[in-house]
Hydrophobin (Favolaschia claudopus), 107 residues
Amino acid sequence: MFSKLSIAVASVLITLAAAIPNSPPPPVTPPSSPQCCNSVVSSTSAAASGVAALLGLDLTGLNVPVGLSCSPITVVGNNCGSTTVTCDAPEQEWGGLIAINCLPITA
């Protein structure tokens, strides 16, 4: 029973992976969007690649800091308990899962 289930799950995952089109890398523009991110990693890291793959993003060729699990900072004096950065303002939002070209905000 377990082997049939694992084969079915693997088949579904392969089908989903094939159905999700890979988009070109997101454009890298000067950071202009203040964000509070749980972590900031290199775009070449396994963590960034994994999240990007789930979203159908291709980070190949990019070597910029990437914020993971981010939310916009909209209020002055917002108490970000994580990493405060300025990232690209994306044309397309990715549900706060990833932000591109994140640089630390220094006061």
